[in-house]
Design a protein that fits this description.
By secondary structure, the chain is an alpha/beta fold. Helices cover 29% and strands 20% of the residues. It has 6 helices and 7 strands, in the order αβαββαββααβαβ.
Length: 216
Amino acid sequence: MNLAPPQPQLTPLLDNAVLTRLERLRLNPQRRQTNRSQGEHVAGKGGSSTEFADYRNYVPGDDVRFVDWNIFARLNRPYLKLYQYEEEMHVVLLIDASSSMNFENKFERARQLAAAFGVLGLLNVERVSAYVGQDAQAPPRMLPPSTGRANLKRLFEFLEEIDCGGDASIDRSVEAMLRRHRGRGIVVLISDFLTTASLTRPLNLREGRRLQLAAG
């Protein structure tokens, strides 16, 4: 009996079973903070373009009009065709890499969470970027905005290569990110929030940039 060889692991941050489950999920913010460019978030508004962008697994509740029936006939599995529309949503990942994250496996969990949110964004044709708050005297390390399944490897390599240990407080990291980022959407803030500084000012600035907050 011939057994199929195991699929190679795409990243040490998330095993392939987790990645498969992530393909069935999508980000669903309370408010749509989008730019008038290209993306997936105006399907119900009309005036959308018809430029094909990518595929993802069909999830119950998706519009069956976008199922690729030719692929279904060959593979007996439904895949959804994703198109670029007039608006896009940014998914901004901000990872705290200060020294306090070195303890109790916090930094490894932070990288895993960033990878999971990044996968959700890329597979749903959002524009995903990542920032690392580490050195208070230097700009944050940055992964420029990218979109689509083809950029999964780029995201994983960026997250795998970052290390932990620095003096950047989370409030300064948020402000440094906001000085560089352009675009509306969601900012995923991953930190232990061990700081004596107030987060009121940076979070108010974030609200002014039309970035909805998800923190953990």
